[in-house]
Amino acid sequence: MRVKSEQKKKLRRDFGLRVRQLRELNELSVKKMAEMLHIDRVSLLRHEAGLWLPEYPILQRISDMFNVSMDWLLFNKGPMFYNQKELEAKAAAAKLEAAEKHDCMKALKVEYRELLEYMEKYPVLRYELLLQFQKFLREQQGQQTPDVVKKEEG
């Protein structure tokens, strides 16, 4: 029986620390967070102090309001935020893409790299170059459209 009592105390204490962490992370006062959770200030303080564990509806409100997982909130298991794994995966993919782009850019001649950098910096340049390139291709193929001919004559 003594072991279960100690486990409950630890669960309440750890839960309280995580609730306080959430409150401080979101820069909320005790009063403001209690209002958001529809509980009184004293109850929130008791939760933070590890004296009480809230009932399920309050746990659900905390989870929903702050986008935290119940596993993290109660047991400190898994990521704190629901979308944390997704964000980490996106960041890793972006980093890989940037590294691949960097490797590809290294293989290009200096003038091509410089041109591509300017095209990224100035979208108008990219647009104008693409228009000129399309015009060049049509001329090479002898397939000028009437619109292009009218613009050149006008």
Describe the structure.
The chain is an all-alpha fold. It is built from nine helices and no strands. It has helices at residues 2-25, 30-37, 41-49, 56-66, 70-75, 84-107, 110-121, 123-141, 146-153. Helix 7 (110-121) crosses helix 8. The mean pLDDT is 82.
Task: Summarize this entry quickly.
By secondary structure, the protein is an all-alpha fold. It contains nine helices and no strands. It is 79% helix and 0% strand.
Helix segment count? 9
Strand content: under 5%
Task: State the distance separating the first and last CA atoms.
Answer: 95 Å
Low-confidence stretches: none
Total number of distinct structural domains: 2
Class of secondary structure makeup: mainly alpha
CATH class of the largest domain: Mainly Alpha
Per CATH, the superfamily of the largest domain is: lambda repressor-like DNA-binding domains
* Proportion of helical residues: over 70%
Kindly state the number of beta strands: 0
* CATH third-level topology of the largest domain: 434 Repressor (Amino-terminal Domain)
- The CATH architecture assignment of the largest domain turns out to be Orthogonal Bundle
The coarse overall form would be: elongated
The ordered H/E elements are HHHHHHHHH
In angstroms, what is the radius of gyration? 30 Å
* Sheet of most strands: none
